TrEMBL record:
The keyword tRNA processing does not apply. This is PfkB family kinase. Gene3D superfamilies: 3.40.1190.20. InterPro entries: PfkB_dom, Ribokinase-like. Transmembrane segments: none annotated. It comes from Aaosphaeria arxii CBS 175.79. GO terms for molecular function: kinase activity. Residues 35-282 form the Carbohydrate kinase PfkB domain. Keywords: Kinase, Transferase.
Length: 333
């Protein structure tokens, strides 16, 4: 059995990666790191090399969040994860006095109770709740995805713009069972139940189910059960480790939304961003060819164009451009 110690990761790292891959002005992106006394500076240096604004908050007397990810075989498929220390979680007050407080989009990994507490607090801290309303993208904390928590999930979803569990978290939340074999119809059924119960008729909310190599399912008030394929097909030898692909997808989605305001095009950005995260263990390598940025030697924009062209071919030359109405008080950077 081989091991890879001290690999940078976590939902925040990968979500930041997804946004950074498509960012024209990296310093406009921010990453809040909650660190223990033993936090390795090399991790912060990675984000610094990306040009991302980093805010590091120390929890004195605590050890940094670490986890053990164990794969059951050499395919990087079945896996088990457990925290070996922490997790140390961010709270809205960590943003007081920081530019990040006034960010125009947030990715949050949280339980529904934390969403109910933190989103109103973030809005309150932002000019007393006045001003622009940020885009809130919520990724649920996996252990909170249980049927008995559905009522509180219903309340929490009304505070966010995008709610995105993966397909395993989805079936665990709605039906209390783990999906052993992937079933697209089962995913659609669960997603329909969840969307109809969690988002109010007047809410411009979007539910995105991330399903790894099976692609993603998007449900919104203007878009029912639309599947988009992952960039790499199942079994591709380019995929070395799928860890972080779903988090990176959400960061890419946020970048796409910033530039296009199109749900479909944002999802495309998400899949392309995720493709870079899964080509290696850990984070991809950023390099430059003149003014062109390359991730693992490839241009993200060129890969996005290729993915779009592929979809156009599969759909007979037409990709539905579903633009979601932006709230009048929303402004992206």
């Amino acid at each position: 059995m081989s091991t890879s110690p001290s690999i940078s990761g976590g939902s925040g790292s990968f979500a930041t990666l997804g946004q950074r891959i498509f960012s024209r002005v990296p310093s406009n992106l921010g990453c809040l790191i909650i660190a223990g006394d033993d936090f390795p500076e090399v991790v912060k240096d990675v984000f610094g090399a990306w040009g991302v604004s980093v805010v590091l908050k120390k929890r004195v007397g605590k050890t940094s969040t670490r986890g053990l990810l164990e794969y059951e075989d050499g395919t990087f498929g079945p896996k088990m994860f457990k925290y070996t220390s922490g997790p140390l979680k961010a709270v809205p007050t960590d943003l007081i006095g920081e530019q990040l407080l006034h960010a125009e989009a947030f990715h949050i990994l949280a339980t529904p109770q934390e969403i109910l507490e933190q989103v109103p607090e973030i809005l309150r801290l932002r000019q007393g709740g006045q001003g622009n309303h940020p885009l809130i993208v919520w990724e649920p904390f996996p252990s909170s995805c249980k049927p008995e928590n559905l009522p509180i999930f219903h309340k929490a979803c009304r505070l966010v713009d995008v709610f995105s569990p993966n397909h395993i978290e989805l079936t665990a939340l709605v039906w209390g069972k783990t999906m052993i074999k992937f079933d697209a119809e089962e995913v659609e059924s669960c997603a329909g139940i969840l969307f109809n119960n969690c988002f109010s008729p007047n809410q411009q909310g979007t539910l995105i189910i991330r399903a790894g190599e099976h692609g993603s399912l998007t449900v919104s008030s203007i878009m029912q059960n639309e599947w988009h394929p992952s960039y790499y097909a199942s079994g591709s030898d380019r995929v070395k480790d799928p860890t972080g692909g779903g988090n990176t997808f959400l960061g890419g989605y946020m970048a796409g939304w910033h530039s296009t305001r199109s749900i479909v095009k944002s999802v495309m950005h998400g899949h392309v961003a995720a493709s870079f995260a899964i080509e290696q263990v850990g984070l991809p390598v950023l390099s430059h060819d003149g003014e062109r940025e390359l991730w693992n030697g490839c241009s993200a924009n060129e890969r996005l164009s290729e993915y779009e062209s592929r979809l156009l071919g599969e759909l007979g030359g037409a990709v539905t451009d579903c633009n979601q109405t932006v709230r009048s008080d929303t402004k992206m950077p």
